[in-house]
Automatic annotation (TrEMBL):
The keyword Flavoprotein applies. This is NADH:flavin oxidoreductase/NADH oxidase N-terminal domain-containing protein. Pfam families: Oxidored_FMN. Its cofactor is FMN. The keyword Plastid does not apply. Residues 81-293 form the NADH:flavin oxidoreductase/NADH oxidase N-terminal domain. Keywords: Flavoprotein, FMN, NADP. Gene3D superfamilies: Aldolase class I. GO terms for molecular function: 12-oxophytodienoate reductase activity; FMN binding. It comes from Salix dunnii. One of its GO terms (biological process) is jasmonic acid biosynthetic process. One of its GO terms (cellular component) is peroxisome. SUPFAM superfamilies: FMN-linked oxidoreductases (SSF51395). It comes from the Eukaryota.
Amino acid sequence: MPHSAIICCSNKLFSNPSSCYKKIHMERSFFVIIPSTNICILNPGNASVYQPGGAAPISSTNKAISNRWRILMPDGTYGTYPAPRALGSSEIQEVVEHYSQAALNAIRAGFDGIEIHGAHGYLIDQFLKDGINDRTDDYGGSIENRCRFLMQVIRAVVSAVGVERVAFRMSPAIDHLDAADSDPLNLGLSVIERINKIQQQVGAKLTYLHVTQPRYTAYGQTESGRPGTEDEEAQMIKTWRRAYEGTFMCSGGFTRELGIQAVAEGDADLVSYGRLFISNPDLVLRLKLDAPLNKYIRKTFYSHDPVIGYTDYPFLCEANAGKAQHSRL
Ligand SMILES: Cc1cc2nc3c(=O)[nH]c(=O)nc-3n(C[C@H](O)[C@H](O)[C@H](O)COP(=O)(O)O)c2cc1C
């Protein structure tokens, strides 16, 4: 089986809350696009500010996301997240069904597959992490209980669209939107063991398991407030990778070299790119050629302009033409 990598496109080109992933394959360090598109389905839980009738968003808890995190509002100002309401246990099945309906809708709309989003502090993560989940019912407390909601969602989505169309994304070691866990290594392992079991029961594997790494030192800056070391992170990823019985994808702070290295050393089957994909419209070509990459401009990531930060990054040929013209001046 060829080594493979994936290019991850963040939700810049799609209305929130969805992301699109264009797969590429990497054989002997060559990056190639595969024409396959997955859509990410998620419920933001307490990270939602747009609620019908101004109702409180749902979560595993009544606690609001702390003021450490701010949300960019349409008028360009930063707001705080509203207080959520903890879902009653009798309401949970209905929310699970929203995921399977969303998955069915996506396949009907022509997507090849679904990535269930259980990362980055959204609803599933709000159930998984003991730093947020303060429930005392069957959905809180033990790891078994905190994984219950996720397992219900995976089973429902698998039964709606078929296991071969379903992937899952998690970030046990990331504390985005306050979603921290006291034991990320074990949380990740527990999720993986349960997914392995589902795969054994249905006799087939998910498309892939996608793990976002905190990359404590990626691009010279900290992505997570959680103190950690590169060694600790590398060990965690290796442990999860060994435990998962299927295709393992990593993302978070990957350069071309780190992506090739991760695949070559067996730490990942697939690698996804976010920020570099935004700033390089021809990222695959540049990775293949080992050409210089456009630097991304953080301040235009969420611009409201339809062009700036979206479609104005130059293609390689344009960048080279610009350079040639420049040198004549
Ligand atoms: C502009 C932008 C928007 C993003 N939006 C989301 C989002 O809505 N939900 C999410 O889970 N991740 C989001 N991400 C995170 C990406 O999915 C990805 O995990 C992250 O960029 C790490 O990969 P990278 O280091 O290659 O950029 C976003 C990233 C960027 C740069």
